[in-house]
Write a structure and sequence with these properties.
about 25% strand, five-stranded antiparallel beta sheet, alpha+beta, 13 helices
């Protein structure tokens, strides 16, 4: 006779956990993961040339001439320092101000991760089409072109170029919202015939394979990046590297229309977002380079916001205005930016709940001044609000536990006769007025709130480099000594001991008692300390609630008084 599969379950789970812990050891004693936002690797390909563009590279003489004429200008606000080049009007550097955004070496966080001209962020496209391979048609810009650069004001940079019968002017200026820039492009047709033009704003972001890799048990890296498009009324698409790879050819060069609102490249805490002034560009496009090459050392994400093609009569001009958000995924700043930019923050399926929890967390922080303490108090408030559901669920489980001797007698009496056993069990439930499913409904009603709370803490910028106490100096990083994950394992064991298991198979109950705490500890080892703090606080409160409900229910039964609504 084959072995009982239930008896095989425990060793299998044990082996799974041992493999996971072994992997954790390798991660712990191996190379440290790169800090979020510090991946400024120069883009290179496997052949070492550092260029993957399909358009021909400028000659050595042209490069030398342009390099000699290269100039930069800066726009500095209280939130960022942006540097622009007169070679193609793109951004060569954007450093985010604020001590909490500084890297480990003390430098300001740098948003630009490429140093090749053809991949600099927010470069201007003047071709008739935009795709993963380059541009075609439209205004031809000479390969040795250098724009005339002036600074009309302290927060303005102006570029001008005459090429292919057109006069092109692009002006950058600081916007009214934090981390906002405005790009205004004016194109005047100086030729004798009607000419078609199409403006696009393109951006790129490079991340190395090492930096974008997952951490223990598949937790995504903080710098793992995504291409995103917002279009139509409420449509939103988000692609990671694997979804843009050759294995998904329908996604490569994905374009979304009509009424494209914005295109963005984001990671967990930062975003570069390009938005049409009227939220009605023609098309948003996403693609990637180094695709389909296992030996590639990194990924180049690219996005473009493409405006409608316009026929310009002789002497006519056309103006395109684009808003740019380049900085941390601060919900307040993104709300101020507008264009429904907050959709770039992944708050999960229950966004409306998560946004409320983020607001509540920030309100608590404004009172206590410590994000770790704010997490503790927020968890307490949520547990307090959900207490009636928790009590109803636990009381039902307690009633089920009281019927265990009767259930054991039914199992012994009817053996393998499932039909008779089921009828006798349901009769027992009716006699004692117990609903075996009543304990599940309150738990299901709580799940959206807990999912939203977990997701909001996972993506909350406020925890980025925020200290709590003692050695917990960064709530967005893992616990440096694994104190919180190990404490959580102990608390999970205690919680399982207090949970009634009358309706559970003894072997399953044993697995839940011993293996579940070990597995949860393994899962939490490399998650942010802020999430671990929430889980620990939640476990402490759950144990306290379970003990209180158990004592009061036992007293009610002993006194033969109603124990309250189930």
């Amino acid at each position: 006779m084959a072995d009982d599969p239930k008896k095989q379950l425990l060793p299998l789970l044990a082996l799974t956990v041992l493999i996971g812990l072994a992997y954790a050891g390798l991660k712990l004693f191996g190379e440290p993961a790169p800090e979020a936002g510090t991946d400024t690797t120069t883009l290179t390909t496997e052949d070492g040339t550092g260029s993957t563009a399909s358009s021909p590279a400028p000659s050595a003489e042209a490069r030398a001439t342009r390099a000699a004429r290269a100039q930069t200008a800066q726009i500095e606000t209280e939130h960022f320092i942006a540097t622009f080049t007169n070679l193609n009007t793109a951004v060569t550097s954007l450093r985010v101000k604020g001590d909490r955004f500084r890297r480990a070496d003390g430098e300001l966080h740098e948003m630009v991760t490429t140093d090749q001209e053809q991949y600099l962020p927010l470069r201007l496209g003047l071709g008739d089409a935009v795709d993963g391979g380059g541009v075609s048609g439209g205004i031809r810009i000479p390969e040795d072109a250098v724009w005339t650069m002036t600074q009309p004001g302290p927060n303005q940079v102006r570029f001008e170029l005459e090429a292919d019968g057109f006069t092109i002017t692009r002006q950058w200026e600081a916007g009214g919202a934090p981390y906002q820039l405005w790009s205004t492009v004016r194109i005047q047709n100086g030729s004798r015939g009607t000419r078609p033009v199409r403006v696009s704003v393109r951006s790129a972001h490079y991340v190395s394979r090492e930096a974008e890799g997952s951490t223990f048990l598949g937790r995504p890296s903080d710098v793992a990046s995504f291409g995103q498009c917002y279009f139509g009324d409420e449509d939103h698409e988000r692609f990671d590297r694997k979804e843009l790879d050759d294995d998904n050819p329908s996604h490569f060069g994905a374009g979304f229309a009509p009424n494209a609102g914005w295109a963005a490249i984001t990671n967990q805490y930062f975003a570069t977002l390009i938005a049409a002034e009227d939220d009605a560009a023609e098309r948003c496009q996403i693609w990637m380079d180094n695709r389909g090459r296992p030996q590639a050392v990194g990924t180049l994400f690219e996005v473009a916001l493409r405006y409608p093609r316009v026929e310009l009569a002789p002497g006519a001009d056309h103006v395109t205005r684009t808003a740019v958000y380049m900085g941390p995924k601060d919900l307040d700043a993104m709300h101020a930016f507008g264009h429904k930019a907050t959709a770039a923050v992944d708050l999960g399926w229950f966004t409306f709940i998560a946004e409320g929890l983020v607001w509540l967390l920030r309100s608590i922080f404004n009172l206590v001044g410590n994000w770790g303490l704010a997490i503790v108090l927020l968890t307490f408030l949520v547990k307090l609000v959900l207490y009636p559901l928790t009590a109803a669920s636990f009381k039902n489980m307690a009633k089920m536990s009281e019927l265990k001797p009767h259930l054991d007698a039914i199992n012994a009496k009817y053996g393998d006769d499932r039909e008779a056993k089921g009828q006798a069990t349901m009769a027992l439930y009716r006699e004692h007025k117990v609903n075996p499913f009543a304990g599940c409904l309150p738990m299901l009603l709580q799940m959206p709130i807990w999912f939203a709370l977990y997701q909001s803490l996972s993506t909350n910028l406020e925890l980025y480099h925020s200290p709590f106490a003692l050695f917990w100096t960064d709530l967005s990083a893992r616990d440096p000594y694994f104190v919180l994950p190990l404490l959580l394992g102990v608390l999970m064991f205690v919680q399982q001991k207090l949970t009634p298991t009358a309706s559970m198979d003894p072997q399953q109950a044993k697995v839940m008692l011993y293996m579940m705490p070990i597995m949860i500890t393994g899962f939490m080892l490399f998650l942010p300390a802020g999430l671990c703090l929430y889980m620990v606080t939640n476990s402490v409160l759950s144990i306290s609630q379970q003990h209180y409900i158990r004592v009061t229910h036992a007293a009610a039964v002993a006194n033969k008084t109603p124990a309250g609504p189930a």
